[in-house]
Amino acid sequence: MRFSIQTASLRQLVLLSFFLALIPVAVLLWQSNKSLSGVSSYAISSAEHAVSSVRQSESMQSLVIDIERAVRQYVVVRTEALQRVALSHIDNQLNLLAQVCISLPQLTLCAEQQAALQALRQRFSEPVIETPELLLQQIRTQQQQITQQIWDLLEQQLQNQQQQVASTQQQLAWQTFGLVLLTLLLVLWASNRITAPVQKLDRMIRAIAQPKHQFPDEKLRGPRELTELGEQLRWLSSRLQQLEALRLILLRHASHELKTPLSSIREGCALLSEQLVGPLTPQQQEVVTLLNGSADRLSVLTEQLLDYNRLLQQAQPEWSQQIPQQLMQECFSDHALSLQQRQQQVKLDCQLNSLYTDATLFRRILDNLINNAQAYGAEGSPVWVKLYRQDDAVLLEVANNGTPIPMSLREKLFEPFQRGTTPRFDSVQGSGLGLSIVADCARLLGGHADIVDVVYADVCIRVRLPLLGEKLV
C-alpha cells in the first residue's frame, strides 16, 4: 500500500484523500441517524404507553363511581338487573386493574385494590346486604392513590426519556468530536503527502538560486508528478553547476589573460605618446591618443570584471567595526582626480561615528556609486553623500544632478550588464556592472538598493542596510 501511494499520481492522491476524509463523515451520519431513530422510537412508544395508562386510569376512576352508584341502588331496590350491573362494573374494574398492574409493575396498591374489589363482589352472594360504606371508601381512596401513582410513574418516564435524549446528545457530541478529529488527522495526513514534496521542491529551488548551492541529496518522495519534477530540478541543478563553473573559469581566465597584453599595450602607447622611440606626425599623435583612450577603457572594464568575479565568489560578509568617515574619505581620495576633471565637489553628511559592516563590500558600494555619480552627473554640480540612521536601518545616499532616470528603468538598471539610455560624460563607456555590483553587495550585507526621488538632486541611489543590534553607535 505504501509503494502504491508513493507512486500514485497527484490526482489519485487527491481523490484518495477526499474519500478517506468522507469515511468519518459517513460514519457520523449513519450513527446520528441510528441514534435519532432509537430516540424517536422510544419517544413514540413512551407516548403511546402514557396515553394508554392515562385512559385506563380515567376508565378505572369512572368505574369506581359506577360501582358505588350500582351498589347503593342495589341495596335500595335489590333487583337482579342491578346486581348484574354492579357485578359487571366490578369485573371490568378488576380486568382494567390487572392490565394496569401488568403494564405498570411499579404500582404498589394492586393487590389491596383487587382484595377490596373481591370482598365487595362477595357481598352480593349474601342474603341480606347493607351499604358497605367503609369498603366503598377504601376502594375510592385506593383508586385515587393508584391514579396518583400512575401520574408519578408517567412523570418519571418523562424524566427518564429526557435523560436518555440528553445522554444520546452527549454521545453524539463525543462521536462528532472524535470523527471530526479523525477527519482532521486524515486531512492533515493527506495534505502532508502533498505539501511535504512541495516544501522539498521549494528548498531545491532555493538551493539552486544560491550562489554556491548545495542541492539536497535526499530523493523526493511523493506523487508521481512531483517526483518527476524533483528529478528535473536535480538535473537542472547539475547543469547549472556545470555552467556556473565554466562561467567563473572563463571570467577569471579571461580577466587575468587580458591584463598582461593590456599592460603591454598601455606601456607601448605611453612610449609612443612621449615620443621616446621617435617623433610622431600629428596624424600619428591622434592615433596614439585614440589608442590610449581605448586602452584606458579596456583597463576599466577589466577591473570591473575582476571586481564582479570576486563578488560572486564571496559567500559571506566579514563583519567588523568600521569608522565610516575614514572609509568615505579614502574613497573620495581615489576618485579625486576624476571628480576634479569635471569640477565636481563631494558634499558629505555622515551622521554615524561607527558602523558594523564588511569594509570591502561597503567600499565597493561607495566606489561604484561615486563613479556612477561622477560619470553621469552634470559638470560643475556637487555630489551629495549622506550616511544616517532611520528606525532600524542604515541609509547610504549618493545623489547628483543630471538626467532623471525613468521609473520603468529603475529596477532594470540593477541587473548585470544593463545600461540606461543616458550617455556618460566621461571618456569611458560603461559595462553595465556598476549598479549590479552595488545591489549584490547590499544583498550580501542583508539590505537592498533603490533609485529614489529627493528634493535636492535629480538622481539619488539609496542603499538600505540593516541595523545590527547595538553594534552601530
UniProtKB/TrEMBL annotation:
Pfam families: HATPase_c, HisKA
PROSITE patterns listed in its UniProt record: HAMP (PS50885), HIS_KIN (PS50109)
GO molecular function terms attached to this record: kinase activity
Family matches, as InterPro entries: BphY/WalK/GraS-like, HAMP_dom, HATPase_C_sf, HATPase_dom, His_kinase_dom, HisK_dim/P_dom, HisK_dim/P_sf, Sig_transdc_His_kin-like_C
Domain HAMP: start-end pairs: 192-245
Chief localization: membrane
Gene3D superfamilies in UniProt: 1.10.287.130, 6.10.340.10, Histidine kinase-like ATPase, C-terminal domain
Catalysed reactions listed for this entry: ATP + protein L-histidine = ADP + protein N-phospho-L-histidine
Annotated transmembrane regions: 12-30
SMART domains, sorted: HATPase_c (SM00387), HisKA (SM00388)
Localisation: Membrane
EC number(s) given by UniProt: 2.7.13.3
Domain Histidine kinase: 253-469
Keyword terms, alphabetized: ATP-binding, Kinase, Membrane, Nucleotide-binding, Phosphoprotein, Transferase, Transmembrane, Transmembrane helix, Two-component regulatory system
Source taxon at top rank: Bacteria
Protein name: histidine kinase
Annotated source species: Alishewanella longhuensis
Lineage: Bacteria, Pseudomonadati, Pseudomonadota, Gammaproteobacteria, Alteromonadales
